[in-house]
Amino acid sequence: MPVVTPDKLASLQRHASDVRNICILAHVDHGKTSLTDALLATNGIISPKLAGKIRYLDSRPDEQLRGITMESSAISLYFSMLRRSAPDAEPEAKEYLINLIDSPGHIDFSSEVSTASRLCDGAVVLVDAVEGVCSQTVTVLRQSWTEKLKPLLVINKIDRLVTELKMSPAEAYTHLSKILEQVNAVLGSFFQGERMEEDLNWRERMEERVQAAAAKEADADATTESGELQFQERDDEDLYFAPEKNNVIFSSAIDGWAFTVRQFASLYEKKLGIKRGTMEKVLWGSFYLDPKTKKILGQKHLKGRNLKPMFVQLVLEPIWTVYQATVGGDQGRGDPALLEKITKSLGLTIPPHIMRSRDPRLLLTTVFSSWLPLSTAMLVSVIESLPSPPVAQAERLPEMLESVPGADSVDEQIKDAMVSFKTGPSDPIVAYVSKMVSVPESELPHKKRKPGQLTPDEARELARKKRAEAARAQAAAPSAAANGIDDLTTALEEVDLDGYAPEHEEKEVDPEHLIGFARMYSGTLSVGDPLWVIPPKWSPANPNASPQPKQITVTALYMLMGRNLESLESVPAGVVFGIGGLEGHLLKNGTLCSRLEGAVNLAGVATLGKPIVRVALEPVNPADLDKMIHGLRLLVQSDPCAEYEQFGSGEHVLLTAGELHLERCLTDLKERFARCDIQAGAPIVPYRETIVRADEMRPPANKDLGRGVVVGTTSSKQVSIRLQVRPLPADATDFLLKNGDPQLIFAGYEVLDEDPFWVPFTEDDLEDLGELADKENVAKRYMDGVRRKKGLLVEGRNVARDAEKQKTLKR
Fold first, then answer.
1. Residue 520: which residues within 8 A CB-CB, separation 6 or more?
2. What CA–CA distance (Å, rounded) separates 27 from 128?
């Protein structure tokens, strides 16, 4: 596919129904960036041969070095596919714009996942076919559930089942089924938790109604006729992933192939004479193909025959055969005869020079990219399964707007414009800025070097050569003047001083600029428009409270193209974009509105996790203190999770989410923002909430709470804990003592300190512990200790009578 120009992408932004805003979510090292590379290759941004290797969206050097993504990056992709406007109409090419955001998978950068998911309408969730559901998989699934994103499941790295685990197709099918069950179990837990919360809220509302009716001495039966007292059960049928619903993709990003059940259903529709709709329903699950009658059988009709499931026979076995023909066999050389047979049966045309290639990986990727191209399966599924911005906003925003700060005070016209997806010039403008991105000035579109323009280094080198020529001309000036020719003047006129800098001067530092990473919800935004910046803690219900909104003028609009930015004149609703003019007016995230009265605050819907790792900073050179403070402020603005504190003692403290996040922040601070040497202290992780025993921490007595009741508040002031303590009944205590572990029964005995110079010398000790006391007969020690243990209750505690045996028990 040829390279798509920015003007072409900008024109597609005007057709909201043909736009898809998606983010790629997964656990670390599950293949997000490799999958993204394969999609970028379809637009000619990178070579298909480099897909999965170049990691294009990982623009930071430390990302390339570690092989993990640390910052979410966005890029706009073009895709064209044949669609029918009617069942009997001829297919026509239809163009789509896909705004894709690649997010990190490491737990230290979970805040980047939050910023990415808020801007999107759908999520592509990747799961490693070998590792299955991991901790961050659950986290990103919960994030997509919270943001009401439509998910699309991709089971990636299926090639590892063939090449590493050496599974058969039948074993791989069982393994994939278990992974699918694990993912659906996670979604089911979210659904049950939400359903229980809704049930609790419903019961509370009903109790309030009954109490209100009783206070008014009304008939309780009359209140039940309001039509809302019946709890409405939610249907979870469309909640789960199922291949027959075409919301599951099986792929290998590194080998460049992917497929859905629908693709194979279309392939076998002609060969088996079975309708595609029927094939989509039976290709996954306990369905079998009778080899004689070519009929589809269920589990009940097997009658003891050992038939393979259709997914194994018709889908996995052909894929396994391709691996065997390309990278299988002796020493991984494949089977050329089998490969030729496969290409003929599939109707594939492989160039002769690739067929003769000694690189089996090249042959493998060429066959799969011709048969099951990854980009086609992915982008077609995104377009068909994930909603467009108008559809997504109509589904997501009503519930989101109910939970914003001061929801009742938000202007109804603003709500209607967002839900109804209005883009007219007179409609209110609402945009959400999820984070601030730091960009070097040289990478801004208006600062980029034009074709043919010299770089500063080239200009300095050219100036040096011109000066040398001028010096030679000056040496020859007396003789030249006699001939009436002023060669010195001529030479000086030819010197191009544009970009000139003396060699002894330092190179000019490339300053950093902050632009907003945003999503439009309503209206059309243009360069030069005035906007109100709504801070996260502002509420329209209390408009005079601080912090107060600020008015800014939009200085620039950008299309985000990974490492590059492209200038835009205007941005319609439903588009992910970059915005300039917010520097110094917005700290991390916020809402942009064209009206202040009744404005909506989208930044207050959800809060990010607080950083827990703190480190003290100081410049190596005390004269660089101002540079460090300025750099810390820029860092905090550009990182959605980092925080900066300055104590009264003068200590400067940086707070981050983890050690890897801390390392990235320190690198950015030294190399980009402060540009000076900084010394960091040892990282400290404070305990925020725990239980300790100390008399000085006894809470004050409260007569209203009653005896044995304590109420406490966490340090974040967001959670209150009410704890009531009562003694166990005597029967329960006696039962526990009679049936408790013998070791627990002696838990009240005082354990004497161990003598550090003690060595085993008795026969029993030598047998149990050895001459060096480096071994222990655990079973014998346990039984002997319990059998020989004796004690006497003295003043409320037990004192061991045999100190040596007590010491042995402790060892």
1. 429, 430, 431, 571, 572, 573, 574, 575, 577
2. 8
The secondary structure of 90-135, three-state, reads CCEEEEEEEEEEECCCCHHHHHHHHHHHHCCCEEEEEEECCCECCH
Distance of CA 103 to the CA centre of its chain: 4
Residue 786 burial class via C-beta count within 10 angstroms: exposed 0-12, middle 13-18, buried 19 and up: middle
pTM of the model: 0.75
How many other CB atoms sit within 10 Å of the CB of residue 551? 10
CB 555 within 8 A of CB 580: yes
Which residue do the tokens 């170049």 mark? 54
Do 92 and 85 meet the contact criterion of CB atoms below 8 Å apart? Answer: yes
Question: 3-state class of 546 per DSSP?
Answer: coil
The single-letter DSSP state of residue 608 is P
Note the residue count of the chain: 811
Per-residue pLDDT of 280-296, as tens digits, reads 999 999 999 888 888 88
- Integer Cα distance of 512 and 551 in angstroms: 23
Could you tell me if 25 and 126 are in contact, meaning their C-beta atoms sit under 8 angstroms apart?
Answer: yes
Cα separations in angstroms, 289 against 182, 272, 279, 286:
28, 10, 11, 10
Q: Which single residue is written with the structure tokens 């799961």?
A: 127
- Residue at token pair 């001939």: 483
- For 690-720, the pLDDT digits (tens) are 666 655 556 666 777 777 777 877 766 778 8
Rounded CA separation 180/247 (Å): 11
**Count of other CB atoms within 10 angstroms of residue 185:** 11
162, 320 Cβ separation under 8 angstroms? yes
| Tokens at 551, concatenated | 């008015």
Q: Is 776 left (phi over 0), alpha (psi -120 to 50) or beta?
A: beta
Range list of H helices, 614-702: 625-638, 659-668
Tokens for 246, please give them: 């075409």
